[in-house]
Amino acid sequence: MQPEEEVQLLRISELIAFNTSTWIGDVATIIEQKGVYSWDRYGRFKHFSSESETASKALDLLAKLFQAQNDPESGDWPDLSEIEYELSLFCWPDYDKPDFNAVQATHAPQPIKPAHPASGQTKSENAYHGIILGLLKYIRGDFDGISRHPDYRSDTQLRDTLARFMSAYPGCSVSNTVKRFKAANELVPKGG
Prior knowledge:
Helices cover 48% and strands 7% of the residues. The chain has 8 helices and 4 strands. α3 (53-70) packs antiparallel against α4 (80-87). It is elongated and about 60 Å long.
């Protein structure tokens, strides 16, 4: 008897975090049309139809993630690292991978929702972004008399390093780090 080949899984969390061409809405469309794979309450890996409670839970998590990324004034900030962990439980095996290109080709271009201005952020968010910007500038060597950190190559490299070593801590997921670095770099100094 030959050993079974290990099945490669396309996890929703990895798809969204590392594949910027895949929109959350495309993942939701696939789940609505074809269902999703996960583990049942007995630990069995199986396909769940689009009408199942399991598919519904995956869609609910995608909606929370979408809201957190696109509506900072909602006031309901879920723990993104927890959502990304939960989304890692939903996937497709390599032998039944969905065709995201086909889904993307079938929907009309999505209008971009206007972003809320930075002034709509809470004082604590602005403070966190200011601290992040200060640390980024320090590491980059942007301050007079401060040399660039010898291991710094780019914000992307720094983000990936943080995700690799800090992902167990709340708020240190790749998607959240990207979002926070972007917000920090968009800060305008007082009176500026």
